[in-house]
Amino acid sequence: MTTDTEKNQTKQQQQDHDLLIRIDQKLGDLIDDVNELKTNIVGRVANLEDKKLSKDDFEKYKQESSKENEVHLQEAKENFDANKKWRWSLAGGLAVVSFIGIVNIINLFSK
């Protein structure tokens, strides 16, 4: 016959064995999760490296943008100058019309 101590010891060994199996399963799941994360991160980094803008490409873009901005600025200046001429012409025309109107009003009241 086995004693209570031997039964308890056998039961404890079985519980320890079951615990080790659960720990082994959890550790296996954890390793799988870490490997999956590692795979995802490697893929994301590769994707980002493909999409990144290199320093040379940035400098080229910067120069092209600067040239385009200069062209647009020059066009805006030319348009402003053309509009300036039209504004002065319009102001001169209004001045002439106003002067004629004032002269006619003065002539009207002087009679």
Kindly describe this structure.
The chain has 111 residues and is mostly helical. The protein has helices at 4-51, 55-110. It is rod-shaped. The relative contact order is 0.03. The model has no long low-confidence stretch (mean pLDDT 88).
Helix/strand layout:
Elements lengths: L3 H48 L3 H56 L1
Gap between N and C termini, in Å? 149 Å
**Average pLDDT across residues?**
88
What's the number of structural domains?
2
Following the backbone from N to C, one meets helices and strands in this order, namely HH
Helix percent band: over 70%
Summarize the structure.
It contains two helices and no strands. The chain is mainly alpha-helical and 111 residues long.
Task: Spell out the key features of this protein.
111 residues; mainly alpha; 2 domains; 2 helices; 0% strand
